[in-house]
Design a protein that fits this description.
The complex is a heterodimer. By secondary structure, chain A is an alpha/beta fold. Chain A contains 16 helices and 14 strands. Chain A has a six-stranded mixed sheet with strand order 3-4-14-9-10-13, with helices on both faces. A four-stranded antiparallel sheet of chain A has the order 1-2-12-11. The chains are: A alpha/beta, B alpha/beta.
Chain lengths: 396, 259
């Protein structure tokens, strides 16, 4: 849906330092070439099947369906992928692209650590040097993932600037990239940043909806009423939405992290509280003050703790094709516990934001309705944080 | 407006100094800028601090943090520039990221620049391809958007240089701003290409800190830009940096002018 200059309506673009412009054009050309190259496509397909474990299951949640008493509920189980989240879909594609471009090193930002772990995994597999930038705050929140990345051979750089979270990790990765454009590809983790990243990441993640669409047609013989996913930068949501965008009757629902509530100032809900701006290479919606200073954002979920949203989401919101709703920490934690007890699935706290909204809307729908909710990742990494949220002094 | 910029480069190599508005506080940053001007700076870049300066190294990032903590805003930066303008005729340009300008409103921002006497804007995250949305509005107010050329620009130099206004900012090295002991880029080759297409002067910045480097770089171009080395003095001397800034600026200006 992006036009030639990487625009989704007025959103998107390439607002980056001159030092990176030629490199980003090279990336556009390389992607244009390899995304149509049968050999590249076959290689990625093989990695997806034999390494990442695709296709991921479309699971009918019978107990939740009965308990909530409305729509029929399916989960797209991205949590069952290798490395435990949807992030592997994107990194396999981008690291393969890096190899084809002759790069020897990749860098990546990470919030919760899911993208960092996935990037370190793909780099190990493909023999690429790997450095991860992670906000110091997040290295503490997600200490196990830091060690995991190091086990995989990556160097983890704790970022001590700004709010020491995801946006600062992106800043630092961009700074690093400007100093080493020759041998390095910045493997961006979400559908954000300058063109062509929002398009590349969306394409690699669109395997989620490609499979889900086929799977639901096979199981139910019809399309779902709604598909839903959590949204930070928005990669699993864009992956979940993409192949349903042209199915006008399918509702697309993105669930943002409201933190302590959209009116509290301690929130990361960009669609609910953000305004138009230009940051991290793209024109999109951002949480910011009247002078355009990017706001510190807050969510219990390190993966959704980002002050912006990908440009294609901003566009889908503007044209009214997708709906975006805020979900608080409390609602997400309740959903995290509910799905664990009801379905025996410990999902990521990020994914639990989508589950929480699902629990709100499913009971009001009819038994003929079908919802597919993306479980973007597994929740092992969140167990200690949830325990602490509940007042239990548990540390990893 | 751009007359002032052109004049700064007339008959000599120009010394361009950078300081962040409001670092560490409004009055001290005014004193620092005046020290820079009195020491012989030919053009001053005033940084409007931004929360996430992705093209800056640790030194200027630190200045942004101090300035924002001290309450600096776009409006206060305009006040500071107006106060400086009341004392000098040398060209003043703002250096900031696109979001503060976009959010202020292009017409309102450039209108205010024109009213106060700010001659140009440098925006490291507004490359040539994305310049159009602001360029026409800036021109209509007589304000120049200063373009940058990097060591990686290669075949892009032609289009950027042909359309350049005010002056061209030649980025000496890969990476972010900051003091460097050595600059390895083949700047004479880049300058040769720039001169072929550009009608405006070109100044080299990023990594220049000593009078020796300033002299060497001035010899290659029409001027030099020094930022982090000056800001480091604010980091070190706080509210009392003005005399130190004056001393370093004089040495840098003399080195540039003598080249």
């Amino acid at each position: 849906m992006a036009n030639s200059k990487g625009r989704y309506g007025d959103f998107g673009g390439q607002y980056i330092p001159e030092t990176l412009m030629n490199e980003i054009h090279k990336l556009e050309d390389a992607y244009e070439h390899y995304s149509k190259d049968p050999e590249f496509i076959a290689e990625l397909d093989r990695l997806n099947r034999e390494y990442a474990g695709r296709p991921s299951l479309l699971y009918y949640a019978e107990k939740m369906t009965k308990d909530l008493g409305g729509a029929k509920i399916y989960f797209k189980r991205e949590d069952l992928n290798h490395t435990g989240s949807h992030k592997i879909n994107n990194v396999l594609g981008q690291c393969l692209l890096a190899k084809k471009m002759g790069k020897t090193r990749i860098i990546a930002e990470t919030g919760a650590g899911q993208h960092g772990v996935a990037a370190a995994t793909a780099a190990a597999l493909m023999g690429l040097e790997c450095e991860i930038f992670m906000g110091k705050e997040d290295t503490v929140r997600q200490a196990l993932n830091v060690y995991r990345m190091e086990l995989l051979g990556a160097k983890v750089n704790p970022v001590t600037t700004g709010t020491m979270t995801l946006k600062d990790a992106v800043n630092e990765a961009m700074r690093d990239w400007t100093s080493r454009v020759d041998d390095t590809l910045y493997v961006l983790g979400s559908v954000m940043g300058p063109h062509p990243f929002p398009m590349i990441v969306r394409d690699f993640q669109s395997v989620i909806s490609k499979e889900a669409r086929e799977q639901i047609l096979e199981k139910e013989g019809r399309l779902p009423t709604a598909v839903m996913a959590c949204v930070g930068g928005g990669s699993n949501a864009m992956g979940m939405f993409y192949n349903f965008i042209n199915d006008k009757d399918v509702r697309l629902i993105g669930c943002e992290a409201a933190g302590r509530g959209v009116d509290t100032g301690e929130t990361a809900a960009t669609i609910a509280t953000g305004t138009l701006g230009v940051f991290h290479g793209m024109k999109s919606l951002f949480c910011q003050n009247e002078y355009g200073q990017i706001a510190p954002v807050y969510s219990i979920s390190a993966g959704l703790d980002y002050p912006g949203i990908g440009p294609e989401h901003a566009y889908l919101h503007e044209i009214g094709r997708a709906e975006y709703v805020p979900v608080t920490d409390e609602e997400a934690v309740n959903a995290f516990e509910y799905i664990a007890k009801t379905e025996g699935i410990i999902c990521a706290i990020e994914s639990a934001h989508a589950v929480a909204h699902l629990m709100k809307i499913a009971p009001a729908m009819s038994k003929d309705d079908i919802i597919i909710c993306c479980l973007s990742g597994r929740g092992d990494k969140d167990v200690a944080a949830i325990a602490r949220y509940r007042g239990i002094d548990l540390h990893e | 407006m751009s007359n002032r910029i052109a004049k700064a480069f007339e008959n000599k190599k120009a010394f361009v100094g950078f300081l962040t508005a409001g670092d560490p506080a409004f009055d001290a940053s005014y004193d620092n800028i005046m020290a820079l001007i009195n020491a012989g700076a030919d053009l001053v870049e005033i940084g409007i601090p931004f929360s996430d300066p992705i093209a800056e190294g640790p030194v200027i990032q630190g200045a942004d943090v101090r300035a924002l903590k001290g309450g600096m805003t776009t409006d206060r930066a305009f006040e500071l520039a107006a106060k400086v303008r009341s004392q000098t005729d040398i060209p003043l340009v703002f250096m900031t990221y696109l979001n503060p300008v976009f959010k202020y409103g292009y017409d309102r921002f450039f209108g205010k620049c024109a009213e106060i006497g700010v001659d140009g804007l440098i925006c490291p995250d507004m490359p040539f391809e994305e310049k159009q949305e602001a360029d026409g509005i800036a021109r209509s107010h007589g304000v120049s958007i200063i373009s940058m050329i990097a060591p990686t620009s290669e075949e892009r130099i032609k289009a950027i240089a042909e359309n350049a206004e005010g002056f061209l900012y030649i980025v000496s090295s890969l990476g972010v701003t900051g003091v460097r002991s050595e600059i390895k880029t083949d700047l004479s080759a880049i300058m040769e290409s720039v001169k072929k297409y550009s009608k405006v002067p070109a100044a080299i910045g990023f990594g220049i800190s000593s009078p020796e480097q300033a002299k060497k770089m001035s010899a290659l171009a029409d001027g030099v830009i020094v930022g982090s080395a000056l800001v480091r003095l604010v980091e070190k001397f706080g509210e009392n940096a003005a005399p130190e800034i004056g001393k370093l600026a004089k040495a840098l200006a003399d080195a540039a002018h003598g080249a």
